Amino acid sequence: MSSSLRGLAWKETRQVVPLVIMLLGVAVLLFVLWSTMSAAQTMANFGHYIPLVLPALFAAGVGAILVGQEKENRTMDWCSSLPISPSLIVLVKLAVAIIGLLVMWVCCALIGSLAGNSRLPGHEAGVANSLYWFTHSIFILCCGFYTAWRMKNTFASLIVLIPLAALPYLATSIYYSLFMTGRHVSLQESAWLLTLASAIGIIVMAWMGYRAGIRDLSPARPELEATGPGHWLAAWRPAHSLPVPETPFRYPLSSLIWQSIHHNRMTLTLLILAMLSGAFAFGYMAVSSQSSDEFGMVMVCTFVAGAIATSWLGVFVFHGDGSASRLRFLADRGVSPTRAWIGRHLIGLSAIAVAMIAFLISSFLTLRNPADNRVDVVPSMAMVGAGLWVIYAVSQATSQWIRILAASAFIAPILSGVALYWLGAAAISSNAPFWLLAVCCLLPMLATWLMMRRFMDNSAKWPIWACGVVTTVLFLVLPILPFAIDVASFPGITPSARASLAANSKKLSSTGNAQPMMRASVPLEYLQQTQHKTDINLTELVASQRFLPEDYLEIGDIAPDDTGVLRASNPDNRRPLRADRYILSRSIEFANYFRYLVTQNPEDSDAVESLGKWIDALTEIAVRLRRSDRWYDQHAADNVEIWLTQTLSRQDLMELRSRDFSQRAIAVLADQAGRSAARRRAVLLSWRREMDPPPMEHDRAKDLDMFGGFRENDWFLWYPQEKVHWIQDRLLDRLCVAALQLIDAAENGQDTLPMRRELHELMDDPSIPFANSWYGERLQPRGVSYGNQFWNSPAVRWYRDWENQAKELASSSESEEP
Questions:
Q1: Alpha-carbon Rg of the chain, whole angstroms?
Q2: Which residues does 344 contact at the CB level (< 8 Å), separation at least 6?
Q3: Beta partners for 515?
Q4: Separation of alpha carbons 309 and 416, rounded Å
Q5: Assign residue 785 a region: left if phi > 0, alpha if psi is -120 to 50, beta otherwise?
Q6: Could you give phi then psi for residue 252, rounded to 5 degrees?
Q7: How far apart are the first and last CA of the chain?
Q8: Which residues, other chains included, contact 383 with Cβ-Cβ below 8 Å and sequence gap of 6+?
Q9: Which residues of 675-701 are buried (b: 16+ CB within 10 A; e: fewer)?
Q10: Are 199 and 228 in contact (CB under 8 A)?
Q11: Rounded Cα–Cα distance for residues 781 and 784 (Å)
């Protein structure tokens, strides 16, 4: 390799490396922010686009860096004066750009795989889809080189690049409309057509870019200005002298505004028109909920283009004249940095004000249409202005911190979108105060104003970068600072109490996976369907359906014995049971039916036998539920034992207490110590499973978003959900400690009211007084409860009157024995 070729490759590589580092840094920043905000769904929905967008941004910007930036710095003239062929310069730049693009693809694929987003959008198309994304990025790179060689202004070349990048889509759409009308096109076939169109575009644009580069590097003909009759001395004729102003070194603000408008009028006009169109489209989209697919897509594309134009208008502040170094001209003439800063921003801020008016007009015209449907919530004009301000402010700061125009032009929209999402999430999820959000919106503008003198003087860049780092940190921290303080100050249990929970839970061993409750048939639904349609006697229908445990329930190793009573096949090793609220409620309803028959006719032996079978079945269910590690199953066991207690305590069923099934049930109800031990064990093991979950098992998926079987999503709804994510462990710690203290107090004969108040404060809405809560006395249901709120309120039936009634029932049963 010749020395000239090595030198060219080294020079081009030095220019490309900063763009690669900055784009990869943006990707890492996005993943870190999503991880910090626990936005798993956002990551799943949009994370796989990052490995696609970043190589495309690199492909679009590398031409502006390797060609446009050298044109502005006039190093291209120096290169063309060297004894190097123009074709070699063009080919080396293109080769370095392609190698950089390959490096970007490899790095982005690695980042995507580490983040768990290995699938690309449209992955159903297989290899064709991946090949298309890669081919289209090379096509964008060739288009970027062509526009950079052809146009003198780098900013304008980036704008022209956007419609060129869409040419493969346009060509494919035309091909569909001409040759594939009425025919289904698969994703794979569509991907292959787009790949073919991009490949053809690569050949065409690479050749056009090569020709444009050779032409630009070739010696230029002198351009003579013809004056008068076109004499050959016209080129040497001095220009007409202008009158010298009285204050030549003072630039009024109007002159700075005039300069901002006229140094690149076409680009500025296109950006403002796109911004106004986007605001007008958003005004329609925000108000109307009725639009055709084609028109709606046009509105969405117009809105996105307007948002990007707003961002580029911010970049235009410090890069609009083609080179930020031209501000040095004003600095050398003593122009105040503040005045230059204001002159640069007045155009953009005025455009934002006009865009707000465009949004207002669009929404007003849409609201006047009586045939159009309305959405429930319409953003205000101030909200739209705030969004445009954030996009503009972050973009103008990015253009000052990043001196490379191509990099700032493509990084600024990403950063401004992230900033807008961050502030919106802070306002909604973290309930950030309005004044603090306003301060954050002003930070990027304040940072560029403070660094304006250094930027104009083109002095050392590290103070500007340091200011950018401080501004970024403040922008990210300030919106969530009150939320973080609130979370940090939220009360929890002491470290010693938590250590005690961990130590006590480790002493216990799990009984294994709980056996789910199953049902063999659903006769009640059949009853409900036929009862009002036929004249069949209800009693005869029930008798024919046999609402008995052995006909309705399938509970693992429980099976009817020789007498038809459901018993465990191995009573010494009973598997725990997982409660099913629906099956349990229906089982109690069937038992209630036979209890009713017995109370109406105590001599009905069939009804007594059926009731006995249900009492035996529910007793076995209660025993098996008590063996479960889940807190929710203890809650269900309470419901079952409440029914057994109330049934066997009825005066009209006293004759049944001497039966074997009643004695077995009373023996279970009398075991208060076993009941308390089961509750304590379930609380500790539920806490341990939540804090230190076991490896994923076949039944683990059922326990996701659950604590001991209770639905965590239905708890703590009065707190902001983002706050619950951070304080949930502390809430669960307090819940378990309060439940354990309730057990200890009840076993020691102490007052349990303080613990119930603590449970009420944790589990009930603050607007509900204790007396009217489930943990108070007034709303305590006397019998079995089926309400959703009751079933999701832990420890609500512990040590209530029914347990005293169960003790009395056991005592009276013992006294009745001969």
A1: 38
A2: 256, 260, 317, 318
A3: 577
A4: 12
A5: beta
A6: -70, 160
A7: 112
A8: none
A9: bbebbbbbbbbbbbbbeeeeeeeeeee
A10: no
A11: 7
Q: What are phi and psi of 334, to 5 degrees?
A: 75, 20
Separation CA 530–CA 538 (nearest Å): 10
What's the chain's average pLDDT?
78
Report the candidate in 490, 483, 539, 527 with the shortest Cα–Cα distance to residue 722: 483
Query: How far is it, in rounded angstroms, from Cα 447 to Cα 469?
Result: 10
Please answer whether residues 622 and 641 qualify as being in contact, where contact means their C-beta atoms are separated by less than 8 angstroms. Answer: yes
**Contact at 8 Å (CB) between 279 and 356?**
yes
Q: What one-character DSSP code corresponds to residue 696?
A: P
Q: What secondary structure does DSSP assign to 224-274, as a single string?
A: PPP-TTT-GGGGGSPPPPPPPPSSTT---HHHHHHHHHHTTHHHHHHHHHH
Q: Cα-flanking dihedrals φ and ψ of residue 749, to 5°?
A: 70, 25
- 792, 710 in Cβ contact below 8 A? yes
Cα–Cα distance for residue pair 642/598, rounded to 1 Å: 19
Dihedral of alpha carbons 234, 238, 242, 243, sign:
negative
What's the token pair of residue 799? 């040590």
3-class SS at 168?
A: helix
Residues lower than pLDDT 50 in the chain: 39-41, 121-125, 224-226, 229, 232-233, 235-236, 242, 244, 248-249, 322-323, 522-531, 533-536, 697-703, 818
Of 298, 339, 404, 355, the residue nearest 18 (C-alpha): 404
In this structure, are residues 144 and 161 in contact, taking their beta carbons and an 8 Å threshold?
A: yes
3-state SS class at 775:
coil
- DSSP string across 469-520: HHHHHHHHHGGGHHHHHHHHTS----HHHHHHHHHHHHT-----SPEEPEES
Give residue for tokens 């020691």: 748
Which residues have C-beta within 8 Å of that of residue 294, sequence separation ≥ 6?
A: none
Type of residue numbered 24? L
The alpha-helical segments, DSSP class H, found in 549-671 are 549-552, 581-600, 605-626, 631-648, 660-669
Report the pLDDT value the prediction gives residue 142, as an integer from 0 to 100: 92
Distance, in Å, from the CA atom of 303 to the CA atom of 315, rounded to the nearest integer, reads 19
Map tokens 């159903």 to a residue: 124
So what's the pLDDT on residue 657? 84
Taking residue 389's Cβ as centre, other Cβ atoms within 10 Å add up to: 22
* pLDDT tens sequence across 81-136: 777 888 888 888 999 999 998 988 888 878 777 665 555 544 444 567 778 888 98
Task: Let me know: does 683 contact 736? Beta carbons within 8 Å.
Answer: yes
Phi, psi of 519 (to 5 degrees): -125, 145
Longest Cα separation, the chain: 140
Give bridge partners of residue 519 from the DSSP assignment. 553
Which pLDDT belongs to residue 737? 92
3-state secondary structure 702-771: HHCCEECCEEHHHCCCCCCHHHHHHHHHHHHHHHHHHHHHHHHHHHCCCCCHHHHHHHHHHHCCCCCCHH
Contact of 316 with 234, CB cutoff 8 Å: no
Which pLDDT belongs to residue 524? 47
Q: Return the pLDDT at 139.
A: 92
Pairing of strands 566-568, 515-516: unpaired
d(CA 620, CA 559): 11
Q: β-strand 566-568 against 577-578: which pairing, if any? A: unpaired
Sign of CA dihedral 450, 453, 455, 459: negative
Distance CA 129, CA 108 (A): 16
Please say whether the dihedral angle defined by the alpha carbons of residues 497, 500, 504 and 506, taken in this order, is positive or negative.
positive
Measured distance CA(565)–CA(774) in Å, rounded: 36
d(CA 63, CA 205): 13
**Pick from 421, 360, 365, 403: nearest CA to 385:** 360
User: How far is residue 257's CA from residue 253's CA, in Å, rounded to a whole number?
Assistant: 6
